[in-house]
Amino acid sequence: MKSVVPVWLVAVLGAVSVAVLAEPENYLVFLPVVLGVTTLLTFGIQLGIRRKEGYVNRVTASVTGAVVILILATVVLAPISFSA
């Protein structure tokens, strides 16, 4: 879990950054960018660990958690984006 939680935190920070810094009409443009960053971060962290055991489980947990966080952010931000 030590390598999974940082990815989730980056997803939360990315979603909050998009909500605060981006224009409302661009929310749905930048959220996939956050997903890409978290995916690359996941692989970077896992390759840095150099431990074979549990690799697939750690990557799955990291990416799935980031996707869930960004789905929640999309549910909140999409109506704002469409109304702008």
Question: Which features does this protein show?
Answer:
84 residues; mainly alpha; 3 helices; 82% helix; elongated; membrane; transmembrane
Describe this structure in words.
The chain contains 3 helices and no strands. With 84 residues, it is an all-alpha fold. The protein has one domain (5-83). It is elongated, with a radius of gyration of 14 Å.
Layout of secondary structure:
Blueprint (H helix, E strand, L loop, with lengths): L4 H17 L5 H23 L5 H29 L1
Keywords: Membrane, Transmembrane, Transmembrane helix
Say how many strands there are. 0
The end-to-end span amounts to 39 Å
- Evaluate the radius of gyration: 14 Å
Average pLDDT, all residues: 96
The helical percent reads over 70%
Helix/sheet category:
mainly alpha
Give the H and E element order.
HHH
Quaternary form: single chain
Any low-confidence stretches, pLDDT <50, length ≥5?
A: none
Number of helices: 3
Number of domains: 1
Estimate the global geometry from the Cα principal axes: elongated
Work out the strand percent.
under 5%
Main beta sheet strand tally, sense and closure: none
Question: Could you provide a short overview of the structure?
Answer:
This protein has 84 residues and is mainly alpha-helical. Helix content is 82%, strand content 0%. Keywords: Membrane, Transmembrane, Transmembrane helix.
